[in-house]
Amino acid sequence: MKIGMNLPVMEPGLDRGVLLEWIRRIDEGPFSSVALGERIAFTNPEVLTTLAACAAVTQRVRIVSTVVVLPIHDPVLLAKQLATIDVLSDGRLSVGVGIGGREEDYRSVSADLSMKRNAALPGLVDTLRRVWAGERVVDTLEPVGPEPVQPGGPEVLAGALGPKAVTMAASWADGICGFDWGPSLEGIESTFSRARDAWKQVGREEAPRLITSFWFALGEAARDQVSSHLRRYMNYMDADVVEDLLPTTGFAGSGAELVSLLARVEDLGADEVLLTPTNASPDEVSRVADLIG
């Protein structure tokens, strides 16, 4: 099982130096991927710009979106942007897409809220792939380029959380790039099993790529660190609901406990785990690298 690391893009206090140090340590460490997701109505950096920066300054790790909120983008322009990132990374891009969980992100960019449904994803992904294949999907003199380095374009992963979304992903995705709030081994196992079954039911010969992610913090103050992060990140939820979630959301424990948890996730058949930090210090990268290196 591979282990990647999300950038702390939802944390305050990020600047050029902090972000580049995170990216450098991830690329130089024992990690498989550097990842980040999208949110509009928040203080985080814009996802595609940051993915491009990751692609340009890394040499080894895969560049993963976890996830791009696909319905808020024009699919042809997005295909061009992602193909450019694939070129910048020399073919190291993996594209996780989903519908997102916040209506305010749609409103912020005047996107159509009626598209916030899993049924919209197959058509949008089909457009991405047709652009990457060099088809003229719009009336232009030339196809929309550039041509991706990866033949046919990057793999497309479903940022699916619910059972229905996981099942539907079998018709259009190369795998799932999920997120577990617990993290709950039972929940991860259920999601993986549902994905495998769904792929078989639609006649897919290749098994789905199975990726999961969860928040983490290490050390004596780990639970306080996770809680501080979640109070800020979950500002779109009722405060009382957030407080109820804090004791059981995210991993908070010792390094040995994290290693044990990762081994158990590997036993469930995960291809990759993308750890999600709850602190902006680059030392978080080094701590995990020492554990898994």
Structural features:
293 residues; alpha/beta; TIM Barrel; 8-stranded parallel beta barrel; 9 strands; 42% helix
Describe the fold and architecture.
By secondary structure, this protein is an alpha/beta fold. The protein has one domain (2-292): Luciferase-like domain (TIM Barrel), CATH 3.20.20. It is 42% helix and 17% strand. It contains 11 helices and 9 strands. An 8-stranded parallel barrel has the order 1-2-3-4-5-6-7-9, surrounded by 8 helices. Strand 5 (155-158), helix 6 and strand 6 (175-177) form a beta-alpha-beta unit. Helix 2 packs parallel to helix 3 and helix 6 runs parallel beside helix 7 (185-201). The longest helix is centred in the middle third of the chain and has 17 residues, at 185-201. The chain is globular.
Question: What's the alpha carbon Rg, rounded to whole Å?
Answer: 18 Å
Strand content: 15-25%
Termini separation comes to 13 Å
Contiguous uncertain segments of 5+ residues: none
Cα shape: globular
Quick one: CATH class?
Alpha Beta
Largest sheet properties: 8 strands, parallel, barrel
Considering the protein shown, what is the CATH homologous superfamily? Luciferase-like domain
Total beta strands: 9
Summarize the amount of helix as a percent range: 40-55%
* CATH level-3 fold name: TIM Barrel
Contiguous helical run count: 11
Number of domains: 1
